[in-house]
Amino acid sequence: METENIRNIGIIAHVDAGKTTLSEQILLHGGAIRIAGKVDEGLTTMDFLRQEQLRGITIRSGVASFHWKGKKINFVDTPGHIDFSLEVERSLRVLDGAIAVFCGVRGVEPRTKAVWALADKFRIPRIGWINKLDMPGADFAGTMMEIEDAFGIGVLPVDWPIVKDGVVVGAVDLVEWSARELRENQARRLAKIPPEWLPIVQPARERLLDDASKSDEILMDQILNGVIDPSRLAQAIAMGCRQRLFLPVTGGSALRGWNTVTVLDSVTRYLPSPQIDRDLESHPGAGLVFQSSLGEGRKKVAVTRLFAGRIQVGSLIKKANSEEPPDVVSSIFQVFADELIQVDQASAGDIVALEVDRHWKAGDTLLEGSGEEILFEVDHRARLVLELALEAASPRDHDLLKSGLKDLVEEDGGLDWREELETGRCILCGQGELQLEIALDMLRDSHTKAFKAWPVHVRHRERLLSGTPTMKEKGEWGGYWLEIAASVKPAPQGVHLAWIGGCAESIKAAIESGIQEVMRNGLGGSGSLDGAIWTVQVEGMIQEAPGALAKKIMDHLGPEILRKAGISVEVPAVKALVQTPDEHLGAILAALQARGVEIQAIDTQRNGSTIRLFSPLEPMLGCVTLFRSLSKGQALLSLEPGGWVVESA
Questions:
Q1: Interval 71-96: pLDDT, tens
Q2: Is 345 helix (H, G, I), strand (E, B) or coil?
């Protein structure tokens, strides 16, 4: 299919705004399912993982392909919870357009602002859907005003829902300037717009025409002549949407299926088709793996967005920045949730599942074997600031635990793990408490229950305060002697070695091992030390001196050099927003003050108050559960990474 007939779209929103419920309606309209599942019953199509169904939240990005009015829709349902922000970022990276879902009762929420900023980062055009218009206090017009104030973008309603007593009874298409009556998910076109609806929709229509025609002289002439071509108006709206000047908006109730078909109409009308980067036009094949799993018979499946070239069955593919040999594509599939439909090939703009021989993980850049190196996603391990120690009950369970962690990390690009050889424990690293809790449940469901999980630990890190002059140390052992000179200076990140002169490979490997070990252990016992450039020279030695002697020297010299440089201990920080009804504000403020958290501001919102704060991460652990308990389940906590701060004394 030509790329102009493809739409790669996803949904972004604050948690509980109705993303997954709207996804079910989109799949229903697209003919992919016969009945829309419900989140609270654990029956949604896109959330097919057991933990998603049990918890009623989206954990992995779900993918489905279907057709709508001549367009192929590759649809991605992204998580909304902060603990899965890396999953959201990766999903946005593979999209060409997005549906922004807003709650018609709560308006623009904290997490909405966070995912909106990510969409801005990737320059993704959006359309809007204002949900829950069947709920008490819902306000379609008021929510549009909030969106404009929050994001500084022109909000253009292209379809106006008519709500009476909590029921969407009809809608007016402001582009076609036609009306329809809605009853029990059925729409009936009306001969004309009812007179009692005109005072509601006439101002919106006038504003739509005014804003859409500002950069379209032909449309302006049509408006002045009183004969407006709806296709020209839609074209002007699409132009503004794709340039991120406008946010075309519709609304209704996803839970009841009221007016949801307008979302798909807006997707095909206003969101763009895949655009091929000029720098990649001649590339034979490049894509980003954003989902990895085991298929039938434990075959490896990598769900991939192709940005350039073409991949066919039998193609040789390789991982960017990897020394692994090329892999072979044995099958290619279109994806519908957990079902796969086989195809022969995929081209730039497609989202497909590739069946491969080797293990791929979410976040890997995939290249056709002869293609030059490209990297679509940078290393994110520095953002995994929570650690969880796992201790298996037996050697067999330890092997099962390691196997489970390997599978888990490949499937969830927001996790990592390592094995502590000294203690025999496995360390699981992640972004948030809920993410780690769910990871443990998945391990127990699929691999082994026979392990102990220690309390969650916040990772600290050490940083160099300054560089050092060259320091030397001479060591003797068993008739051999060796003298090493070294210095260190700060670097933004990573551990880098610069060698002066040459030496035996065994000596070089031992010195490198000693430096990596001292950096990993740190100096203050608070965490690993990151960001350093070491300059090393072997000043003199007896030939064939053993590597063990070089390691012994570095075990003493390395910490001495670090002490000379000095270190600071840093801890991860978060930007946090707490939304709460006013009657619970006092209890939540008291809880924050008891934890030593400094409040930045308290804002009055439509349905309560929002507390803004900046804090080290550690005092915020457990606050999601605490605040929900203090507010009878009504308070919401949203956390965003806030970088690193120096640990207070």
A1: 989 988 776 555 566 777 888 888 99
A2: strand
Reading phi first (left if > 0) and then psi (alpha if -120 to 50, else beta), residue 98 is in beta
381-458 CATH, one of 3.30.70.870, 3.40.50.1970, 3.20.20.140, 1.10.10.1100: 3.30.70.870
Q: What are the two backbone dihedrals, phi and then psi, of residue 452, each rounded to the nearest 5 degrees?
A: -105, 135
Q: How far apart are the C-alpha atoms of 180 and 260, rounded to whole Å?
A: 14
CATH class of 570-646: alpha beta
Q: How far apart are CA 423 and CA 293, in angstroms?
A: 30
- Across 331-345, 510-524, 612-626, the highest mean pLDDT is recorded for 612-626
Q: DSSP letter for 579, please.
A: E
Q: How far is it, in rounded angstroms, from Cα 361 to Cα 288?
A: 10
DSSP string for 134-156: TSTT--HHHHHHHHHHHH--EEE
Dihedral angle sign, alpha carbons of residues 404, 410, 411, 417? positive
Question: What's the one-letter identity of residue 566?
Answer: G
Q: In angstroms, rounded to a whole number, what is the distance separating the alpha carbons of residues 147 and 614?
A: 24
Q: Pick from 47, 58, 118: which is nearest to 89 by CA?
A: 118
3-270: what CATH class? Answer: alpha beta
Mean pLDDT computed over 625-635: 89
Q: Name residue, tokens 């095909």.
A: 268
| Cα 508 from Cα 609, distance rounded (Å) | 60
Give the Cα separation of 151 and 117 in Å (integer).
9
Give the C-alpha distances (Å, rounded to integers) separating 260 from 3, 24, 189, 436. 25, 10, 16, 35
